[in-house]
Design a protein that fits this description.
The chain has 283 residues and is α/β, with parallel strands linked by helices. It has seven helices and 13 strands. The termini are far apart.
Amino acid sequence: MEPRIRIAVIGYGRFGRVHALRARAHPAFDVQCVVDPCPVAREAAQADGFRAVASLDALPPNLDAASIVTPAETHAEVAIALMRQGIDVLVEKPMATSEAEIGTMLDTAQATRCKLFTGHIERFNQALATVPWDRAPASIVFSRQSRLPGSSHSVVLDLMVHDLDLAAHLLRCHAPDAFQILAVQEHEAGVFAQAAMGTAVVDFHVQHGADSSCATLSWQLAEEAAATCQLPLSHRPGPEQPDALTRQYTAFHHVLTGQASDLASAIEGATAVRRALAIAARL
């Protein structure tokens, strides 16, 4: 057996805890520690059986990789510090929150030769294990809502960025000229955006503060009067299926060991953020 990858999880909030537990359960990883400046979070991590430290300065030696699950506005700072220590990084979406942060992260990855990837977990949704259409649709609609509160700006950077990446991934439209914003509307329930991506027109509907959290993908082929197909994206996998986060960690292991995977690269993560920022700028 290959030696397990020694990893640290940065951030032990609600989702950081899930990351740490999934990484610990994964046979390819050895969670060396979690990092969180909050004493309560460190106590919770220790209660779950993890070594917990307060800062990156206290990281154990010889780490191979780190998973960043901190607030979005800290992603760039943490990722840059880790890469400067020679540590490969998986950073939660959104990869960054500004063009300046994106540029510095990409420059640091190139200068340090560290691997930098983005955790766009919806790529590993079991419902999307295969591309859901035989040929590119003429129109696509993503609808995503969350019970969590947020602003119109954060709903684009937090929720819509999921589907901006998914659309690019499914349609292979990562190039800058493969995306044109057609409309952006802010309303009481959230934000709507429409974009031309390749040969498809894609609608994005997102909402924070909803009664329930759910997501759907709908599409229609180019044929006249073609039926609309709909795919729920918020179902839970069966007990025999790995969850999306476990599948994402498998993909991270693959790229760290030189294998192919669908994990979002740094460039792809940057593309999703840039598109989200362009939409948010029109609000």
